Amino acid sequence: MAADPVWSAAQRLEGLAGEVRVNLLRLVTLVAFYGHHLVNVFLVRDDPTLQGAYHTVVTSLVLAWALAVLVIHYCLMRRWIPSALKYVVTIWDILLITTLLMIGGDGRSMLAVLYFLVIVAAPLRLSLPLVWLASLGTMAGYAFFLGYVRWRLEMPPEQRLSRPQQIVFLLALGAAGLLAGQIVRQCRRLVRGAPVPVEEEASS
To answer: Taking the model in full, what pTM does it have?
Structure first.
């Protein structure tokens, strides 16, 4: 099928704008979550497991994330945006989230919801392949974490989510990916022109 020049132009322009927004939101989210972590470590102090080695590793992960933000910002400012950038950044986000879950060693960790942020960020780049990568990648990352908890940590069933809960979470990731894909498809229909012009529909 021949490429659509209008849609390709929209992907270049809005995809760039989307990458800028996602990188800014990545920084804001990083500051918010790490700030919350610091409050719990140094002010609240009600969970001793957050201190010591765990705090050190979390800080290292945050620095790695912050370095990625700076590198992406540099690329965007220089207008050097290779086509693989969005895929590499998405995989990096998934790997860091999975690593964060693994070092926490909590089979019921709420930090798994961070996977949804990767999925909802994907359609802002107007790329269906990226949505597929984000969806399948987060599902694979979560499944890997579940296997790590089950076979590496040998955590008893009462300390991890039940099998139905794990499946529901994986299904929710898949459903979020399907919805994200529909966002990209709807944007493509709007760019190409709706079957019925919006002005005509509004005036009828």
So the answer is: 0.89
Long-range contacts of 6-13 (CB under 8 A, 24+ apart): 6/191, 6/192, 7/188, 7/191, 7/192, 10/126, 10/187, 10/188, 10/191, 11/125, 11/126, 11/127
* DSSP classification of residue 107: B
Q: Residue 107: beta bridge partners?
A: 160
Q: What is the mean pLDDT of residues 33-52?
A: 91
Specify the 3-state DSSP secondary structure of 108.
coil
63 neighbors 99 (Cβ within 8 angstroms): no
Asked whether the beta carbons of 83 and 99 are under 8 A apart, the reply is: no
**pLDDT at res. 1:** 44
Phi, psi of 141 (to 5 degrees): -65, -45
* Nearest-angstrom CA–CA distance, 9 and 29: 30
Q: For residue 12, which of 120, 105, 85, 61 has the smallest C-alpha distance?
A: 85
